[in-house]
């Protein structure tokens, strides 16, 4: 049985230079920032990392740099999903050669799988190329592919020998609970909705992947600690703080991801712009976001 990941795995932003090229030089500083704030792993080049806006070569460069600066120090998971199965398999094989701990993949999002069996076959090809623990990345709000993950696990369990589980970024908590129970708890179901982490914990989540762990992991540590002590009232209060932070970010006109990336600049870790079609935050909206965050005492919880 694959080791279940516990605690937080950040979905790091991809740092970029002003001209839109990938800034590999700052990744070491990015890794140390996360380690300093007790984040034990990273899931790179996923949604938060703008993975599908990067070239395969860029993704390999980013993977290589993370392996150099954090290999053996953090749990490294590479998102290798791609619309081309050839490119996905290449990234998966590269992850193994670089010493990554696991890989994950979204489904193809243009020619979408029409059934669970088609999805399993797609994942099996990628997983075989990786020869590492494989996580299917379930994020139907982004991919438009929405099969019950309990059905996926049942169909895949005997066809993908290195299937570790699912990165579950969805609000269907009944399906999440069914995945946790599947095959006597064999699979690692990483919880992917920061704003309802407490609900995931109540159902049995042990590990979580998220974007806001980049800059406020301490708040989520407090949620987990309060829940573990049976102090549900404190855990609920802390989760509500998380919700207020996420709502403050989401109010930014350019959208959640560019605004969230800009928060690290407020914390003296400037990871640069985002790539089109995403739009960079304006100075006025940046200042307005800072004001909203100050009003809810975000900086009392923010990473240092």
First-residue to last-residue Cα separation: 36 Å
What is the number of strand segments?
Answer: 8
What is the CATH superfamily? Aldolase class I
- Helix/strand/pairing class, anyone? alpha/beta
CATH T-level fold name: TIM Barrel
Order of helices and strands: EHEHEHEHEHHEHEHEHHHH
Task: Sketch the major β-sheet.
Answer: 8 strands, parallel
- Tertiary shape: globular
Strand arrangement in the largest pleated sheet: 7-6-5-4-3-2-1-8
Supply the number of helical segments. Answer: 12
Mean pLDDT: 97
Poorly predicted residue ranges: none
CATH class reads: Alpha Beta
Helix content: 40-55%
Second CATH tier, the architecture: Alpha-Beta Barrel
Tell me the radius of gyration: 18 Å
What's the domain count? Answer: 1
Strand content: 5-15%
Topology:
Layout: E1 7-10, H1 27-36, E2 41-44, H2 56-70, E3 75-79, H3 85-97, E4 102-105, H4 116-130, E5 134-138, H5 140-143, H6 149-156, E6 163-168, H7 173-181, E7 188-191, H8 197-203, E8 207-210, H9 213-228, H10 232-250, H11 256-266, H12 283-295
Parallel strand pairs: 1-2, 1-8, 2-3, 3-4, 4-5, 5-6, 6-7
């Amino acid at each position: 049985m694959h080791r279940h990941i516990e605690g937080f795995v950040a979905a790091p932003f991809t740092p970029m230079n002003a001209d839109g090229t990938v800034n590999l030089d700052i990744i070491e500083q990015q890794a140390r920032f996360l380690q300093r704030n007790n984040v034990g792993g990273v899931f790179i080049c996923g949604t938060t990392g703008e993975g599908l806006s990067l070239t395969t070569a860029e993704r390999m460069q980013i993977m290589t740099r993370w392996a150099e600066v954090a290999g053996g120090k953090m749990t490294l998971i590479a998102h290798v999903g791609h619309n081309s199965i050839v490119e996905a398999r290449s990234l998966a094989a590269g992850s193994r050669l670089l010493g990554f701990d696991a890989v994950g993949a979204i489904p193809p999002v243009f020619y979408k799988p029409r059934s669970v069996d088609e999805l399993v076959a797609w994942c099996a090809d990628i997983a075989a190329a990786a020869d590492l623990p494989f996580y299917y990345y379930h994020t139907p709000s982004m991919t438009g592919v929405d099969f019950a993950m309990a059905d996926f696990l049942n169909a895949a369990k005997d066809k993908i020998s290195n299937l570790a589980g699912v990165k579950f970024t969805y609000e269907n908590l009944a399906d999440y609970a069914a995945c946790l129970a599947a095959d006597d708890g064999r699979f690692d179901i990483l919880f992917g909705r920061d704003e309802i982490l407490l609900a995931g914990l109540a159902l049995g989540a042990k590990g979580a992947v998220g974007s806001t762990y980049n800059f406020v992991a301490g708040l989520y540590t407090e949620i987990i600690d309060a829940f573990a002590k049976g102090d549900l009232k404190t855990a609920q209060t802390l989760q509500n703080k998380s919700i207020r932070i996420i709502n403050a970010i989401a109010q930014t006109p350019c959208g959640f991801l560019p605004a969230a990336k800009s928060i690290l600049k407020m914390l003296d870790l400037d990871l640069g712009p985002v790539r089109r079609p995403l739009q960079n935050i304006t100075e006025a909206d940046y200042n307005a976001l800072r004001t909203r965050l100050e009003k809810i005492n975000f900086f009392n919880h923010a990473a240092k």
